[in-house]
Amino acid sequence: MAQHAAQAEGLCLRYPESLGPHAQVTQEVAVQMLLRATQLAQHTPFTWSYIDKPTVLGRRDVNLFISEGQLFLIFQMPQLPFPIDGLAYQDREQRYNIPIAGGRELEVFEVKFGFIPGVDTTAFRARRRFRLAKGGHPQLVLIHYSRGQATPIIPSLNQPVRNYPLRPVNEPAVYVMGEKQGQKVFPGPNVPGAGRVPSVVDRAPAPDMGMGYGMPGMSVPGNPQALLAHQNSNMDALEKRALRDRSASMSSRQAAGRPDDDDSADESESISTRTLALARYRRNHELMNEVFMYAAFGSKNAASPPPPYSGFKKDELEEKISKLTSEIDEMKAKATLRQQAASAAANEIVDISMDGASISDTIAT
Prior knowledge:
By secondary structure, the protein is of the alpha+beta class.
């Protein structure tokens, strides 16, 4: 019951590693990061935590705090709404879909004019969340916070959107995808992301802080190619780290020895097999549903469509034809008259020239 109440307050499953600050996230970058996140989520457990407004400096917590340019990756449960983040918004969230090459479709939700109740003096925060509605895993959601156009705060909305203090989180990390889907992971030395709180930036910060609000990489937006290369390097580093941790975990299991196989398989193997069978069943069910959906639920006695010429009336068409025929005949008559007049004028010119020639000959003689 306590966990359900915490989920209603915004508890969510998030990727344990920090994705770092990003001044902007384009559609191409979002698609590439979501595709890589699908691979990383196969062998990386997600942790339970909140996404909340900034807190007092120096406080350590399992929650992730919103800052300008911050990027989060969460696994949204299908039966739960999008988790609240502690910010109030004065605008309706806009939703639009963008077709991507390869048959994929990117779904974008954007809301502007957000603010921290009781802290911000203007509503300037914007939030965009991306997910692959087609061609990817639709439950993996990429969330990006940025600075947008500022507007005055409506006094009636300047109220906290969640109750504080937040409920403590004692749930272990859990695999959300892959063969281990549904398995809980308790803190241990060989578990990536379990038992530790990742730092906001795993590398040394850039020395130039500039006008970036105290965050590295925010001083100058840079060109899109450099930004894309920087984000790709971050994702490559996270992927290599997860693979390294996974290989270390597998080597430790092999060193411990494998028990003899018997009829009583261990719980992890049974969960793995059941999860794999369930995933295959869902995939096959969706494919068959696409094939037989219209045959089973479509209208079998649908009325035949009207003929393409039903929008025309015979009387009106005949009237138009007669009118056009008379106009054509009139134009032909006018053309004939013009031709006759032109030929008569030409004959007169020829006669005058011949008469003029005879006069000149007479004078010469």
